[in-house]
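User:
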Amino acid sequence: MQNRKVVYTAITGGYEGLKEPKFISEGWDYVCFTDDPAITSETWQVRLIDKEAWVAMGAQHVDNPRRLAKFPKIIPHLFLPEYEESIWVDGSYDLVGDLNTFVSSYLRETDMIGFAHVTDIDMTCSYYEAKRCIASGAAPKEHAEAQMNRYRAEGFPERYGLIAAGTIYRKQTEKTKELGWLWYEETMRGTPRDQMSFNYCCWKLGFSYDICFLNYRLNPWFVYKPHKQVVPTARGILTVSRKPIHHWIAFPDQVFDVAFPLKQLKRKIICLELGALPVEVAVEKASLTDEQGKGYPLRLFKTYETCVEDGWLVFPEGGARLKFKVPDGLPAQGIREARFSGKLRFHGKVPDVSDMEPEPKWWHRIFNWIYEKKLFRPVVQLIQNLHKWRRTE
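Assistant: Predicted structure:
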């Protein structure tokens, strides 16, 4: 009997290697779309991409490997019409648990399951995602801002939700097909960061989906492993109140341009931290921007554990810490963001995502221990039994 459920992925441009599942779920087929004829697998059905045929089906920007992979990701019913249910898995994830348990645990009254990108309500927002992508260099500033301005002009509200699109469960229904076509058009029209447009498309069509609030990078079914090709990255921390604001900051060509969204200023001093390795920094611009777009320059007045050489601030012990003074007379309310730009020179090995991961929380350590001890199967069985017990009460 043919399976009616499928897990699928796409490997294009040599961006990832194909990962063999750590757990094979009963009743599911495994399909990989790729432009690399050298990829083989004992588990995945490898299907080579025919770009001309895909263009005839409606694909756009097929010469761009990232955008090429979006076509099957967003519109699976064109390529997998024989299946009733599907799960998209980004090539950077390991499959480690029973997918049947995942679906039965989180599918309620809709045709889709998505992971929440974050649980902080201030960050569950396409507008915040756009700022984060601009700051990290993941999306061109002019394209992302134009896209968000268009959404705002149409009335798309803030804090409408933000999906983590690395893994998505779907039923192949007319509603999900309609959503897929709109989502694909928005991804091709705007930036290739599809997470920025997904919740806008849901709002536009009145589409709802079930949400899993577990850590989308580390859970009993999917474990994230970083991409092979990584832009030099570090963690940026801005302190304007008791609660720091964290950002991942990409440094293409050792240049940074980061914007931290703000609500209010509770202090006259702003502290900026970049990275955690020995580094030299040349700050070219530091400013605050209000809701009307007016800029206010910040003055650098103090650094920690540093010296100055030819205009560069040298931090030999690791991590740049800089303090900026807020201009006098600036209102506490109405400030939209703090922006910093400049250049960096790292000492020794250039950091990447795997080097700069923040200290894991206690629940991350538990998941890591379970993963290392290969205890996912009994843990998933325990979760399944607990769900059955709750339903019988």
